[in-house]
From TrEMBL:
Residues 26-86 form the HTH tetR-type domain. Residues 1-22 are annotated as: Disordered. This is TetR/AcrR family transcriptional regulator. It comes from the Bacteria. Keywords: DNA-binding, Transcription, Transcription regulation. Residues 49-68 bind DNA.
């Protein structure tokens, strides 16, 4: 066998082995994320032990530390994943509507209704603000659902439905109101109450009506 071909075969074999190891690492990370998410949703942050998460997916505690460094690191990754899904849910609800104003209302309602999801309720709304701290939690919110709110308001201002004004402070005011409402729904006995959600949505509609231009 020519030396060049032999070297090529060795390189291909090395690349194949590296690719297989990368796939295994990715699969291990996904498994840890999934198990961590299930346990954080069911038991809360303080009820989860990282070594038990690792054992449940058939890897060592060292492997869990390699991927996430600590229980807090795993929790942070789970929060980011759930927050991203929440943002997608808000965007999908808005896209079902054609009228820009109804898109805003649909997205806001989807955000509030997400509190009935155990993972969103316990992980994102109840534990994340205290475990991660308010600033980091807000930053994750900005990257997901809050971003869609800002984009929706910018579109409404451009369309003349909302009076011309700086969008950032308006978006922060509305985002703060919805986060407070979602936290209230999540922490109370009414977390899964359709009636409580409807009352909250009605109150939010009243706030939104206040920013809409008359006759728009």
């Amino acid at each position: 066998m020519p030396d060049g071909q032999a070297a090529g075969d060795r390189a291909a074999g090395t690349n194949g082995a590296q690719g297989l190891r990368a796939q295994r690492r990715a699969a291990t990370r996904r498994a840890l994320l999934a198990e961590g998410r299930r346990r954080f949703a069911e038991d809360g942050y303080h009820g989860v032990v990282l070594a038990e998460v690792a054992r449940a997916v058939g890897v060592t505690k060292g492997a869990a530390y390699h991927h996430f460094e600590s229980k807090a690191g795993l929790f942070r990754a789970v929060v980011a994943e759930v927050q991203g899904e929440l943002g997608d849910r808000v965007a999908a609800a808005a896209e079902e509507q054609t009228d820009p104003w109804e898109q805003l209302r649909a997205g806001c309602r989807a955000f509030l209704a997400a509190g009935s999801d155990p993972a969103v309720r316990r992980i994102v709304l109840v534990d994340a603000p205290t475990v991660l701290g308010w600033e980091e939690w807000r930053a994750l919110d900005e990257e997901s659902s809050a971003r869609h709110l800002t984009e929706a308001l910018e579109g409404l201002v451009e369309a003349g439905v909302v009076a011309d004004q700086p969008v950032e402070p308006l978006a922060r005011l509305l985002s703060g109101a919805m986060n407070e409402a979602a936290l209230w729904l999540a922490r109370g006995e009414s977390a899964t109450s359709a009636e409580a959600l409807e009352r909250t949505v009605a109150a939010l509609d009243g706030l939104l009506t206040g920013i809409r231009r008359a006759g728009a």
